[in-house]
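Pasting as-is:
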Amino acid sequence: MAQPAAKERTYFIYEGVDKRGARVKGEIEGYNVELVKAALRRQGITPRWVRKKPKSLFGGTKKIVPKDIAVFARQMATMMSSGVPLVQAFEIIGRGHEKPAMQDLILAIKADVEAGMNFSQALAKHPRHFDELFVNLVAAGEASGTLETLLDKIATYKEKVEALKGKIKKALFYPAAVIVVAIIVTTILLLFVVPQFESLFQGFGADLPAFTKMVIAMSRWLQANIGVVLVALIAVTVVLVQLKRRSETFNYLLDKYSLRIPIIGEILQKAAIARFARTFSTMFAAGVPMVEAMESIAKAVGNAVYRDAILKMRDETATGEQLQAAMRRSGLFPNMVVQMVAIGEEAGSLDAMLAKVADFYEEEVDNAVDALSSLLEPMIMAFLGIVIGGLVVAMYLPIFKLGSVV
């Protein structure tokens, strides 16, 4: 039965009896109680009761993340290489998964396959979790009778992409977290600590140092305008989030100028090239035609500037242009990458060459992130020392001055 697109799925908890008569309980995603009961019966569970899961103050049901899909691909590849039938593999992986949402997803795919769908068709029903690349590779494996091999390639690809994402997050999270903590600590000092010193200084009867006066003025301004500042911060955050979700122009400009940030931009560029090469190598090795593969590669590359360039390259290669010539014309790929692609095209080993490019740039990203972390640590310590230490010094300067007079 087709579900209305506007109606939101939610999580339900249930208790029932399985085919062996054993009591089972768990969580399942659905639209309403009746549909959830029907889904449980299809899974061989006779429900005793089903009710909507209460919301937690500390977060709801664990959501499915890309890492879960990578693990699923690896588990499927392992199961099939061990000779386990497809439907049985779904059953084993689905029942054994610790996340109820992932259990429901896998068992829903299993039910569709049992109903006569191809594996790729069942995956295509869940575009939030299985992108075009995943679906296309599975379809290619089904068509060529090499599903086991293709699942292994998908698993390797997903694992490497997630590892690369982790490195990028590591590079960006550390300095961002330190800056946020510094802002919070500075705000607390200005709002609560500086006013205490100000009241103490009023009894000195002496002129305060200029630095101390400046900090006190900042404290007074923040106390008078803290409401406006908070509202402005919330408004800016909401606007940026909405622009990120809805505006293609904003995302393009964000990606474009992020590539120009010193050090960080170089890491982002290397990561985009690594994703391009890894995705291209995986799809080309699976027998997906180049022009057809470029659409999925553009979506997987993770940067709007590279996405648009790849789509333009797709149009150029569709008219007979060589890939290396289209890459050189884009101006986004280093000469080494273009040369390796040219060699791969001439030798008929494009997938192997692109895999080497991906390995090289993934290692480059890893090294760049480690170097950035080593560089940032002393810079961050200096930043915190100047900001936090400066406020502390400003408050103690009058005391030092009074001590020297006495």
